[in-house]
Amino acid sequence: MIEVDQNTTHAPQDEDTSKRRQILDGAREVFMELGFDGASMGEIARAAGVSKGTLYVYFTDKTALFEAIVEEETRTAVLFSFDPDRDIATNLTGFGEAYIALVCRPGGGSAIRTVMAIAERMPDVGRRYYDRVLEGTINCLTTYLRGRVEAGQLAIDDCQLAASQFHLMCQATLFLPFIFQAEPAPSPERISKVVASAVRMFLANYGVKG
């Protein structure tokens, strides 16, 4: 009877996963620097430290590679855990700061700009990014707000609209300057200041007057 070394049976799969990770990291670097149109499979292969032949083993073309990167980006969407033992202001503050830290993180802006640039030609990619990263984040907040309305702690007729409003208030003076490269990624202190203002405005409008 031949004994199989369990430590070696997974080696090919581990190597495959590692190689794919290596390619994605190199491709991300090229796409973020050159954009979708400026990137080439040759440039990506060089950045990843692999041959073009190896590149095509894992991805059929540049579009498939870019879609894989977008898919990874969508997994970073804010899935904020609202704490029922904390007050609404604290939960909104935590949510807003987490969201802005995500979309305005160094490198994050490049991903958004790249998706925006090709969304007209590749609408499925743009729609998937929007649904999972942006709309998914709003839906997360919407669910929380509905719970607070049912508990009598907020007075909101349209929780989806209210969530979208808060989402945009948190971006004020931060997101657009960052995404258009007019300013660097905002500091945690700047994010906290803007989000705190958004929370005050939100509760002034939707808070239950006691």
TrEMBL record:
Gene3D superfamilies: Homeodomain-like, Tetracycline Repressor, domain 2
SUPFAM superfamilies reported for this sequence: Homeodomain-like (SSF46689), Tetracyclin repressor-like, C-terminal domain (SSF48498)
InterPro entries: DNA-bd_HTH_TetR-type_CS (IPR023772), Homeodomain-like_sf (IPR009057), HTH-type_TetR-like_transc_reg (IPR050109), HTH_TetR (IPR001647), Tet_transcr_reg_TetR-rel_C_sf (IPR036271), TetR_C_Proteobacteria (IPR039536)
Biased composition (Polar residues): 1-11
DNA-binding region in chain numbering: 40-59
Region (Disordered): 1-20
Keywords assigned: DNA-binding
Name of the protein in question: TetR/AcrR family transcriptional regulator
UniProt organism field: Bradyrhizobium denitrificans
